[in-house]
Amino acid sequence: MSINQRILSLLPLLHQVIEQGSFQQAAKQLHLPRSSVSKKIMQLEALLGQPVLHRTTRQLRLTELGEELLSLSHGLPTLLTEIDSLLDSAQTTPSGTVKISSATLFGQQALIPEIKALRALYPNIAIQLSFDDSFTDLIAQNIDIAIRVGHLPDSQQVAKIIGHKQRCFAASPHYLSLWGRPTHPKQLAQHQCIIFKTPSSTHDHWAFQEKDQDTVTSAKVSSTLTTDDVRSMVDLARLDNGIIYADLTLLQPWLQNGELIEVLSDYVPAKQEPIQLLCIGRSSRSRAATVIWEELAKRLPPRLAGEN
Fold this sequence. Notes:
The structure is a single chain. The protein has helices at residues 3-20, 23-30, 34-48, 64-72, 76-92, 104-121, 173-179, 230-238, 248-256, 287-304; strands spanning 53-55, 60-62, 96-102, 125-131, 145-149, 158-165, 167-171, 194-198, 201-202, 205-209, 216-220, 225-227, 244-247, 261-263, 273-279. By secondary structure, the protein is an alpha+beta fold. The chain has three domains: 3-87, Winged helix-like DNA-binding domain superfamily/Winged helix DNA-binding domain (Arc Repressor Mutant, subunit A, Orthogonal Bundle), CATH 1.10.10.10; 91-162 and 273-305, Periplasmic binding protein-like II (D-Maltodextrin-Binding Protein, domain 2, 3-Layer(aba) Sandwich); 167-269, D-Maltodextrin-Binding Protein, domain 2, CATH 3.40.190.290. It has a five-stranded mixed beta sheet, covered by helices on one side. Helix 1 (3-20) packs across helix 2 (23-30), helix 1 (3-20) crosses helix 3 (34-48) and helix 6 (104-121) packs across helix 10 (287-304). It comes from Vibrio cidicii. This is HTH lysR-type domain-containing protein.
C-alpha cells in the first residue's frame, strides 16, 4: 500500500475524532480501545510529517494542515459508507443489467420461454436481449452471455455445452412437388437452395455422410437466394422457395405441422455440433451475469432435449 493510500485509509478516523470531540468518544463510537485511536492518529501524523491536532488536557483542535485535510476529504466517510453498502448489496442481492446474445430462431424458441422465470428469480436484474445470426464479439459489444453453435477457439470466455445441434435438409411439400424430391446430396446442384450468409461467411457447402461410411463430405449448392437471418430462411422455405439445411430441433414445429418435409435424412452427418453457453471471464463478470449464466446453464439443456 502506498503512502497516499495509507493516509487515505486513516482520514475517516480523523473525521470521527473531530466529530466526537475526543479520542475516548471516537473510540467508543468505533468500538475500539482509546489507545488504538490515538495510535492511528499518530500514524497519520508520521506519514504526513506534521501534526494534524493540537492536544490539550481539555480539548482537541485541528492544526492548519488538519483543517485542510478535513476540508479536502469532507465527503470521504459518506462515500466509504456508501461503497460498503453497495458491496454488501452486490454480495446478497444481484442487481444491474445483463446483456444476452443469441441467434434469432434459437432465442425465440429456447431463450424467450425462460425469461419470465429469470425475472421472477432476480427482479433487480435488468435483462437485455440481442438476437443476431451473425458472429458477435462479446467484449466489443459489451455482451455478458452468448449462445453459440460449434467448436469455439480458445479464449478467456467460460463455455458450457448445453446441447447439440443436429442438422437436416428440408423443403415445403409444394416445392418438392414442383422440383422433385432429391435422393442424393449431389442432386442439390439441380435444386433451389436457400443459403445462410453473413458478411464473414457463406454456408454454401452442405455436409453429408454416405450410408455406412464414416467420412463426411460436402456438396456445394447454388447461392442464388441468401439471407443472414435463420428465421427468414425458414419462412422462405415454407413459402416454396427451396431447400434449407438447418437445425432439426428448431425446425420441429414446421416439420410436425407438415409445412416442411425432411429430405435426404439418410445422409445427415452423424456428428453433432455442440451448442455452448458462453460468459465472459470471471475477473470481468458481474455477480448479476454470473447468476443468470448459472441459471440458464440449468434451464436450457432440458428444453433443448425436448423435456419442457
